[in-house]
Amino acid sequence: MLPVGLLTPIGGSLDVSEGTAGLTLTVTGLVAALAAPLVTAAVGRIDRRVVLCSLMVLLAAANALAAWSPDFTVMTAARVLIGIGMGGVWSLAGGLAVRLVPAGSVGPATSAVFSGIAIASVVGVPAGAYLGELAGWREAFLAVAGLAGLVAVAMAVLLPPLPAENAVALGGVLRLLGTRRVATGLVLVALLVTGHFAAYTYVRPVLEEVSGVPAAMIGTLLLVYGIAGIAGNFAAGARVGRSLRGTLLVICAALAASVLLVPLLGLSVAGAAILLVVWGLAYGGVSVSAQTWLALAAPEAREGATSLFVGVFNGAIALGAFTGGLVLDGFGPRSVLLLGGALSLGALLVVLLGRAPGTAAAPAGPRA
C-alpha cells in the first residue's frame, strides 16, 4: 500500500505521471495474485518457517531496491519482487494458526492473523504519506525494508519448525470456483476491492485537486482514515458472526456513499475528513467480512478458499489501480470517484441478490 500516499513525489522523482506511478501498485497486486497459489505449490514440503523467513528477506531486499530506484523500470522490478513475497506470505500465514496454538485458541489466533492483513491495508497509506512528508519517499521504503528484516529475524527466533503437512493441489483449489457461494463471495471481493483501489490509489490527487487539501495535511487526513479503518476492522469482526449479510450491506452502502459524495460534500478539509472517516470505517471491514463469507462457503476446504481469496483480492488491487490510473489520466480525479462508487454499488447488488452462507460461531475475522 505504501505507494498510494506517495504517488506525487514518486512520479515527480522518476519523471512519470501520477497515473503511471499508480502502476507500482498494479504490478504488485497482479504478481501477488499469481504468487499466492503458485508459491504455495512451488515450495512443496519445505519447512514453512524457512519459507516465510526467506520471503521476508526477499521483501526487505525488494523494498531497499525500490528506495534506491534511479528510474521507473527499476522501481517496477522491485515491486514485482514485493508482489512475490507478499502473495507467498499472505497465503502461507493464513493457515498457520491451527499449528501454533492449542485447539481451543485456533479461532482467536486466526482472527489475529487476518486482522493484521486488514490493519496493514489501511495503515500503509497514511504511514507512507507521513514518512514521505517527514523524510522523503525513498526513506519510507527503507523504513519498510528495515521492518521486514526485523520480522524475518523474529520469525527465525520465535517460530517452531513447521514442516509441510500436505502437498497443495492446484486442481482442487480451482474446483472450488464451481461452488456457487464461493464464486459469489469472490465476485463480491472483486467488486469491492477493485472499486476501492480505483479511487483510493489516487486519493492524494483527489484530496489536493477536488477537496483543496494542502499537501502538508494529506498525511494527517490519511492517518485519520487509517484509524477509522482499524476501528471498522474490529467493528465488522464483532458483527459478522451475528449478521454476515447485514454487515456486508452496510459496508457496501457506506463505501459507495462516501466515495460518490466527495465531489459534493468533500469540497473542504472538514468535509473531506468526515467522508474519509466513513470510507475508512467501511473499507476496514471488507477483509474480515469477505474472508468470513469464503470460510463459511467452503468449510471443508478453508485453505483452498483462502488461496482463492488472496488471489482475487490482490488481482482486484491490480485491476483497481490500473483502471483508476487510466481514468485519472483521461478524465481527471473526479472520475475515479465515480468508478469506485459504481463498483461498490455493484457489490451491494451482489449481496442483495446472492445467497450468503450460514454463520458460524467463530468467524475468520478479529474480535474487538
From TrEMBL:
Q: Which residues cross the membrane?
A: 20-43, 50-68, 80-101, 113-134, 140-162, 182-203, 215-236, 248-267, 273-296, 308-328, 334-353
Sorted alphabetically, the keyword list is:
Cell membrane, Membrane, Transmembrane, Transmembrane helix
How is this protein situated with respect to the membrane?
Multi-pass membrane protein
User: Where is this chain's protein located in or outside the cell?
Assistant: Cell membrane
A GO molecular-function term, please? transmembrane transporter activity
Pfam families given for it? MFS_1 (PF07690)
Q: Which PROSITE patterns match?
A: MFS
Domain of life assignment = Bacteria
Question: Which ranges carry the Major facilitator superfamily (MFS) profile domain?
Answer: 1-358
InterPro entries named among the record's database cross-references: MFS, MFS_dom, MFS_Efflux_Transporters, MFS_trans_sf
CDD domains, per database record: MFS_NepI_like
Per the record, its GO cellular-component terms are: plasma membrane
Task: Name the chain's protein.
Answer: Transporter
Taxonomic placement: Bacteria, Bacillati, Actinomycetota, Actinomycetes, Kitasatosporales
